[in-house]
Design goal:
The complex is a heterotrimer of chains A (283), B (274) and C (338).
Chain A (H helix, E strand, L loop, with lengths): L2 H4 L8 H30 L3 H8 L2 H34 L5 H13 L2 H12 L6 H6 L8 H11 L2 H14 L2 H8 L4 H30 L2 H7 L9 H10 L3 H37 L1
Helix pairs in contact in A: 2-14, 3-14, 4-8, 4-9, 4-11, 4-13, 6-8, 6-12, 8-12, 9-11, 10-11, 11-14, 13-14
Chain B lengths: L12 H28 L2 H9 L2 H34 L5 H7 L2 H4 L2 H12 L6 H6 L8 H11 L1 H14 L3 H8 L4 H30 L4 H5 L9 H10 L3 H32 L1
Chain C lengths: L1 H17 L11 E8 L3 H19 L3 E8 L1 H9 L6 E3 L3 H9 L12 H4 L2 E2 L2 E6 L19 E2 L7 H17 L4 H13 L1 E3 L4 H9 L6 E5 H10 L4 E4 L3 E3 L5 E3 L1 H7 L2 H9 L4 H9 L3 E2 L2 H6 L9 E3 L9 H9 L4 H7 L1
Parallel strand pairs in C: 1-2, 1-3, 6-7, 6-8, 10-13
Antiparallel strand pairs in C: 3-11, 4-12, 5-8, 5-9
The chains are: A mainly alpha (283), B mainly alpha (274), C alpha/beta (338).
Chain lengths: 283, 274, 338
């Protein structure tokens, strides 16, 4: 926080920080700000009225709803999973830990196309599960459940990956002590573990939500693009784009960009507050 | 599988590990096995014939090369960004910090569409570049631009926290001994952040390998030149060729698995030293 | 601590909205899904409205039609994999045949509806920039050095297969069946391709929005649509010979039997042949298969254009053409690799 303390010797040039900051600004400008500007200018090019029409279109609203449903489910389940996995991995040592951590990370690196494909092969009409699913009239892929599942898959590592390093760094002494005094699992978690991880958890939840809302590739493979039924907001953008409704496409995109910025601002606040609180503790 | 070494009395081992394993099996393992099962229909010779086909090999080359360069670009600029964000206070810092994760949240198709509009030889950035003789959209350079965008957050976000927590004592000591800033950076700081930097690089590389949505818009998709491996999977699928599609997918998956395993080893090793 | 509560509350509200009330849609008595290909979006938007009225007057029921659009092959694959379509309206017969082979449609679907189950036809034309600066008039011009060609990939796009076959047919006539010359010509055209998108709409966007290339090989309806969208920037060049594209339709037996929607699905496709359906096709730049209605659009379409069909001896039907040209390692791949 205190920049003066670590500032470089006056004579060893003030120009290094300046150049580095300038490079950062230019890089961000080129890579992030200009695409964002394109989205915003195209979105509002046809005026506020047609912007409003695009974002309040019933199909857009249905798509928004499905997107939120998928994101919420993914966040809730991944939080539950992330906490359990982090607990198992950091509080105990056992064989095969490396394999489990790698498996958790896999969805990070799997192409969204492959992610969609594997769920089609697992739950689709050609799968060995199909006779069972069809007999019970269960529709997974090309329906809302499929969208939820691939979103879950794509965002699977986010929570676990954030929590594990934090818990690892904390060590297990406090929990050991609490267990010695006879505290139960839930009490230990709530009283001792949770306070340490809550900021990391919130941060990961926010990232997970952001990624879930924006997912395109995997969802596109399992969606079937049924208008008003299995289109998420990103898919709705693609449809509008393909229908030559460029301004509408960018209007809906801007909605997603706003959501992203909103989420990232929330994240910033979280981080800021967390740091402040931490400093408060130290003092 | 039981807790060993020192006696561990924290409760919940069986419960948490059991839940974790069943969760992983359901979401990751079973679907992956389906994939392996599907491509096994091809047999070994069919599998090799598919993945060694010149056009598929060319697409692997494009994918690996472009992903590597994009990850490298992000390695350099991500490190600079992380450094600047962690060490300096300047107006606009929070703005930059807030924008870093934008590529995670923006749908890849939207990214692809806007980047193509920007970098085609009729776009704001593409036009001046084209006049200088550099065509971006519809060339491998375009693929690199899209992949750099998509994977931008990884290096910054893995290196930044390490830099923030780095103890300044050694730097101070180095400075007092009269070492130049460059020397301090390479001798003191770089070794500390190397694991994080490598992890960020590998994550970016792995993510870039699989990217499809944004790249198809900007790539031009010319066989042997700008065709990426995930697109080959799509093309095989469009021809109802499941076996070959899953064979290509399996190679990609193997690559991701190896990369992820390396990352975890790097992290485990660095954790061991701390 | 207060902030974390506020944030948690925010997340909760956000979650709640996912389960909130659905925007009111009029309750439908019966619903069918039409899985179609890319360029038919505008056509079916209008046609569905007309059909709803028709079904209401026929049966007194409110019908709802769920639309899905995408690349033709990809759409067929989705149906095979479990996307439940009551009717298919795709770009090429082989795509529907693939669904038949997967067991969802009974063999002989092509004779279920009149005219090979093709209620409207189309053809391949050239879209060029205003004033036709590169003077692209016929297929031969595509092989000239310095001409940038935009077409989708025949491997992934139904429309692109028609493009390729039309070029082949022209060359076959031009070089009097000399296969070596034909292949050399096609090879030259392939080398002039600048961008190979996966679908017809992607190509149109590349040509129209992003300004790539000198000529777009496009469905006739797609070309007209681009003209209408961007008036004054493009013109259509009609080659001396092209191909008669017959986008087929079919009822998906497995799905309609399960859902009990056979009657409405059949009527939905039959109504395409009615005068109203045919006129809607014409208005959306598809050539009506009913010759009388087609004449009403004589000012739009070049009805005298020499059109060759896929059953012509040059090709010998879809199955043969598909096998020879488009399968992995087929003529297209060979010519491209050179």
């Amino acid at each position: 926080m205190n920049s003066g303390k670590y500032a470089m010797n006056a004579e060893t040039s003030k120009w290094i920080p300046r150049i580095l900051i300038l490079i950062s600004f230019l890089f961000i400008l080129l890579m992030l700000v200009t695409p964002l500007t394109v989205i915003m200018t195209e979105a509002f090019r046809a005026g506020l009225k047609s912007y409003w029409r695009a974002v309040s279109d019933p199909y857009a609203l249905k798509a928004l709803q499905l997107t939120l449903l998928a994101a919420t489910t993914a966040v809730v389940l991944n939080t539950a999973f992330g906490l359990t996995a982090a607990w198992a991995i950091t509080r105990f040592s056992f064989k095969g830990k490396g394999l489990i951590t790698t498996l958790i990370d896999i969805p990070f690196a799997v192409s969204p196309i492959i992610a969609g494909l594997i769920f089609i092969l697992t739950f689709g009409r050609l799968s060995w599960l199909h006779p069972f699913l069809s007999a019970h009239d269960l529709k997974v892929v090309f329906a809302a459940p499929g969208i939820v599942i691939v979103t879950l898959f794509v965002t699977f590592p986010f929570v676990a990956r954030e929590i594990i390093p934090v818990l690892e760094a904390r060590g297990t002494d406090e929990e050991q002590a609490a267990a010695l005094m006879g505290a139960g699992l839930f009490a230990i978690f709530r009283r001792i573990t949770f306070p340490h991880i809550r900021w990391a958890l919130l941060y990961s939840v926010i990232l997970c939500a952001a990624r879930a809302i924006g997912e395109f590739g995997a969802v596109s493979v399992v969606s079937g693009h049924l208008r008003g039924k299995t289109n998420t907001l990103p898919l709705h953008v693609e449809i509008l784009y393909n229908e030559y409704q460029f301004n509408a496409a960018f209007a809906v995109s801007s909605l997603l960009a706003f959501a992203a910025i909103g989420i990232l601002t929330a994240r910033n606040i979280v981080e800021f507050t967390a740091k402040k609180e931490e400093e408060g503790h130290v003092r | 599988m039981s807790p060993h070494a020192k006696k561990n009395i924290i409760p919940g081992f069986g419960l948490s590990l059991g839940l974790t394993i069943s969760f992983i099996s359901l979401v990751v393992l079973i679907p992956m096995l389906t994939l392996v099962f599907q491509s096994s229909a091809l047999g070994w010779s069919g599998f090799w014939k598919t993945v060694l086909d010149p056009r598929i090999l060319a697409s692997f080359r494009v994918s690996f090369l472009c992903s590597f360069i994009a990850a490298l670009i992000n390695g350099v600029f991500g490190l600079i960004l992380a450094w600047v964000l962690a060490r300096y206070r300047f107006p606009g810092r929070r703005l930059i910090d807030g924008l870093i994760e934008l590529p995670f949240a923006l749908p890849t198709a939207v990214a692809g569409i806007s980047l193509t509009a920007l970098y085609s030889d009729k776009g704001w950035i593409g036009e001046p570049l084209a006049r200088l003789g550099l065509k971006v959209a519809y060339t491998p350079v375009g693929i690199i631009v899209a992949l750099t965008f998509i994977t931008l957050p990884f290096v910054v976000r893995t290196v930044q926290p390490v830099l923030e927590q780095l103890d300044h004592v050694y730097e101070e000591a180095g400075r007092m001994l009269g070492a130049s800033p460059t020397l301090i950076f390479f001798r003191v700081i770089l070794p500390e952040i190397k694991p994080a930097l490598l992890t960020g690089f590998a994550l970016a590389f792995a993510r870039a390998l699989g990217e499809y949505g944004s790249v198809v818009f900007i790539a031009g998709n010319m066989p042997f030149k700008t065709e990426i491996a995930p697109l080959m999977i799509m093309i095989k699928l469009e021809q109802f060729n499941y076996g070959e599609a899953t064979a290509v997918a399996l190679v990609m998956l193997g690559a991701s698995f190896v990369i992820m395993f390396i990352i975890n080893s790097i992290q485990a090793r660095s954790a061991g030293f701390v | 601590m207060k902030k974390i509560n506020a944030l948690a509350l925010g997340l909760f509200v956000f979650a709640l909205s996912a389960f909130g009330p659905v925007p009111a849609a009029p309750a439908a008595d019966v619903e069918i899904t039409n899985v179609s290909y890319d360029p038919t979006r505008e056509l079916y938007e209008q046609y569905n409205a007309a059909f709803k009225k028709h079904w209401k007057s026929l049966k007194g029921q409110e019908a709802d039609i769920v639309q899905s659009h995408g690349g033709s092959g990809r759409q067929a694959r989705a149906v095979i994999e479990g996307n439940q379509a009551d009717v298919l309206t795709l770009a090429l017969a082989p795509d529907i045949t693939a669904v038949e082979k997967a067991g969802l449609i009974k063999p002989g679907w092509q004779s279920e509806f009149p005219l090979n189950s093709a209620p409207y036809t189309s053809t391949i034309v050239f879209l060029v920039r205003k004033g036709n600066p590169k003077a692209i008039k016929d297929w031969g011009d595509l092989a000239r050095a310095g001409v940038g060609v935009i077409t989708p990939n025949p491997k992934t796009s139904g429309g692109a297969r028609w493009n390729y076959l039309a070029a082949w047919a022209w060359a076959h006539r031009e070089y009097k069946g000399d296969e070596k010359a034909v292949k050399e010509y096609i090879g030259k055209v392939l080398r002039n391709i600048l961008v190979l998108d996966t679908g017809a709409r992607g190509s149109t966007n590349t040509f129209v929005q992003n300004g790539q290339g000198d000529v777009l090989l496009a469905w006739e309806n797609e070309a007209f649509l681009a003209l209408a969208e961007k008036a004054g920037e493009f013109e259509i060049a009609t080659p001396s010979l092209s191909i008669l594209a017959e986008p087929p339709v079919a009822v998906v037996d497995e799905v309609v039997e399960k859902r009990g929607t056979r009657e409405i699905a059949t009527e939905y496709l039959n109504f395409l042949y009615s005068e109203e359906g045919q006129r809607l096709a014409g208005k959306n730049y598809y050539r009506p298969s009913n010759p009388d209605i087609a004449k009403e659009f004589a000012s739009v379409f070049n009805l005298k254009l020499d059109l060759i069909t896929i059953d012509d001896p040059i090709f010998g039907g879809w199955e043969k053409a598909q096998d020879l040209h488009f399968k992995d390692g087929g003529v297209f791949d060979q010519l491209y690799a050179r």
